[in-house]
């Protein structure tokens, strides 16, 4: 459709470098992820509130496991600069993002004790522990590659919904979520992450290791897709 | 029902020691696991063949991840005796069990290439990577506790179905599976494993660590339960 | 000798709780550590400057490995509170302590590039990689126990030299080092660490695991002792 | 000297592939390793028996840590073939090599309890824990590269001493040691290992990662060199 947002044209960064190549080479799974009914329900504002609440709770639990992956990133870094970079990601999650998420959840009627007592869903366990296993089994590049779908996928979803004339803005309870992932701050974070992945990819032999990297990226995409449905099972 | 098999009476081992206490303290989740419709479908012989085939494929993939957990058990052992014991479990899987499983699958019309090319299900990823994460995060006791539901649960299911007058024997395509887990060889393996868990529990402070151990045991039981349903999603 | 500082009397904290018990139960090795000729050379101000410089360089490299151990502490923490606590230790090293150490080294004529290009000594490799291996093999308690000799040993050395009438103050080039480890800020850090170790010890079964904990504590003490001599081989 | 054994000419395998390139690029450190006074003392038969005994004890303790590294190799393998290969190395050490080593030690008057109660030397701790840390931090290639100096270095020493007209044969108490590492069985093991390293190197991007690999190889060579001197400090 003319006028519709297109990743390839409207945000070329998504198609460049190692992340861009990986995204391109599992396009079928990628489209299942970024075009998931969950995403459409957010865009139209028609998703059930209860499902979104369940998603937010699991997303909180995901952030904790993501922080653990960042801790392994510090451990696996081989320069002080890389260690400091990873430690800032880690502090960013523990000191800032989790508090913001708690505040956002409160707006949806979810109090902090409910977050703390929630049980991890199967979808969350599969996704987060897959990442942590790759982190332990492989090196820093394996870890960054399995984290990449989350980083760039949410950015693509955010940018597309933010720009799309079809997205409902007025009265859409999910607009703040769209604004977050389509906003400048998250965009800057993603651009930084994509650059970092390219640097690490070059130094750690991404070219020769590509088949393995594509396999782990594709599995992470598949698990991200399933994670959208955690809303139903949460 | 009079005459029915009862774990507590018919195989007291299941109720003794650390494993017995853990099983008792999450009895609700435990009964969901050992009394799952999958188990009933096996007992009556009415389970769909296709579902059982999917289960067998995922079980093959599970064995591979289980072997990786055994490798971590070798790494975490602090005596030569413990290392050798864990290495024998590892060799047992890689050299014997996997081949037996391949042979068994062939009887069900699943050839080895199909096993090798199969994709890990969400249920398998959740369960196996949870175990591997606990293995890396905790010590040998955490690892053995998360492996315990698989060990004793299959034994309990096997023993019960093997003994139950309600189990269909004649013409039940799943009788060989029941005979395997209800048989003397698997029973001996379980008795050995339960003893080992008690020894390790005593030396590694299971008493004081019980709340954490119960939490990880219960999660593993929940993931085992979900793993039965991998048959449908495989 | 009357009037001399005595750990047991002058800082009872060193003799209390899990850390105190461990220290007491390897007293022979402990005295070799805290009463090492390096310590006496610092107290009298007679240590060769070149040896102290070598020590400072290896201590810089040690901090980097210590930060990696803190990253594993974040990964192994099982509550958000514990994760945040460990992440603050980590940031403290990467953002503050390393910079302070670089500044201190500059006062001794060691420029930052010299620190960055220095080769890890055998003593440093043995000590730091032993800690990291225990961190990976065991759980959070094993990690904290192997880190404890560093924490409380430097505090004991600092407190004793700071208080001792035999320590040379005027013109002693090492007085600033003594003032650092005998000062209030480091003292507070140690008191916090000792409390934390007791809490974790209780929750993780230190009582039952004591023989193993003592063995790893004693090895760490031995490696700390050898680390003083890195000054000569650096 | 004419007629002397030369690695480059007499065993071209040592100069080929990834291992050969790494060996070549740290030739200074390599010569310190393979031409160490310990090696000369073995060749001439003049090394003190007590020093050799200490070496044998530490070598026993090294085998145990080496087995733990092989366990991590199983865990990090991404195919069943690779897992089985690594598990065979592991079983080989635990079931065969350790027993042979115990038998060999007995010939030198060292009984098994003495082996079991021996304390790990600083040199052993530095070397073995460095390998285990690289194993956890990096991927399978990092692990194989840090294990390579041991594999090919002992082969080179064995082959050279075995062939050299200068090596004392008659009445040399160390001839059996030379015969072991210069013998066909160990040679075959090394040839297999060198091939495996090349395969893994190709699949895991050794070309792009070469600077890091060379750094870890060189550190391992340095630690092997120091390990010869464990004989004195044991």
Automatic annotation (TrEMBL), chains A, B, C, D:
This is Aminopyrimidine aminohydrolase. GO terms for cellular component: cytosol. The keyword Transport does not apply. Gene3D superfamilies: Heme oxygenase-like. It comes from Komagataeibacter diospyri. CDD domains: TenA_C_ScTHI20-like (cd19367). GO terms for biological process: thiamine biosynthetic process; thiamine diphosphate biosynthetic process. Its EC number is 3.5.99.2. Keywords: Hydrolase, Thiamine biosynthesis. Catalyzes an amino-pyrimidine hydrolysis reaction at the C5' of the pyrimidine moiety of thiamine compounds, a reaction that is part of a thiamine salvage pathway. Residues 29-232 form the Thiaminase-2/PQQC domain. The lineage of its organism: Bacteria, Pseudomonadati, Pseudomonadota, Alphaproteobacteria, Acetobacterales.
